[in-house]
Amino acid sequence: MKRYTSLNAAIKDIYGEDRKIKERRPVFGGDINEAWALTLDRGETLFMKTNVPSFLENFVAEEEGLAAIRETRTIQVPRVLALGTDRSFSFLLMEYLPPAGQRKDYWERFAEELAAMHQSPVEESFGFSGDNWIGAGKQINRPRDSWIEFFRDCRLQPQITEAETYLDSTDRRKAEYILSHLDKYLIEPARPSLIHGDLWSGNLITGPDGKGWLIDPAVYRGHPEADLAMTELFGGFSSRFYKTYRQISCLEPGYDDRRDLYNLYHLLNHLNLFGRGYLGSVRRILTRYAD
C-alpha cells in the first residue's frame, strides 16, 4: 500500500483535490495508539489511528495482517484506506464502523467464520512474510517447517529471554525444561493455518452486518489452538462460540492440557510490557509444565 507523507495528501488522493477534514474527535478505548473519528466536508466519517512517526512500520504490519485475513474470504475486517506520516505523527486511516447490534446467531456465526479462516489454504510453513507486533511487543515470524520448533524459537524463547530480569533461577530452570520438552506437550497440526494471533474480546467488534469482525491482528501461520487458547485467557467468549467451534473444527484430544502453554506466550509478553503484575500467572504455568 502507498505510504503518504501527509494526512491531507491521503484525503485528497482518495476523495478528490477539493476535499478536506471538517472535524476530528477522539475515540477512546485503545491502549497503544490515539484514535480519531474524522468527518469530511461532505459528511463522510473515517477512523484513524495515530502514533509517533517511528510507529509507521507497526501500521504497515497491521495493514498486512488485515489484508491476509481478508484474502481468506471467510471473516470481515475493516478496510484500510491509507497509511503514512504527517510531520509529528504516523497514521493508519480506515473505514469507520458505526455501533451496531449483534445478530441472534452472532457467536455461532463467528465460530463458523473463524473456523473457516483456520481451514483456509496457506503456505506450507509456520510464520509469516515478515515480523509484526503483539500489542507493543515485537513478534518474530521467521518461517519454520515445524510448529513445535516455531513456537519454541519464535514465541517462547524470545519472551523468556526478555523476561530474565523478572525470572529467578528457579523460574529460568523451569522455562529451560519446557523449551527442551515442548514435544512432550504440543502436537504438530496436519498443516499450518492463518491465525489472528491476538484473539481476545478487545479485538473482536460487531460490524454493520451484525456479525463479528476482527481488528488489531498479530497474524501468522500457526496452530488454530493458539487462537482458541487466547480467547480463553482474559474472560473468554460465549459458551455458544466454543460449542460451535468445537463441533466444526474437531480439536485434537488434549487441547485443554495444552491451552495454558500457548497462553504462556501472551502472559510473558504482558509481563515484559506491563511489569510484575503478570509474574504470578507466568510462574503458575511454568510450575504446571516443569514440575
Strand fraction equals: 15-25%
The first-to-last residue Cα distance is 49 Å
Task: Tell me the major beta sheet.
Answer: 6 strands, mixed
Specify the overall morphology. globular
Number of strands: 12
Give Rg in angstroms. Answer: 20 Å
Describe this structure in words.
The protein has 291 residues and is of the alpha+beta class. Helices cover 42% and strands 19% of the residues. The chain is built from ten helices and twelve strands. The strands form four sheets. The chain has a six-stranded mixed β-sheet with strand order 1-5-6-4-3-2. It has a two-stranded antiparallel ribbon with strand order 7-8. It has a two-stranded antiparallel sheet with strand order 9-12. A hairpin with a 4-residue loop joins strand 3 (34-40) and strand 4. The radius of gyration is 20 Å and the shape is globular. The mean pLDDT is 96.
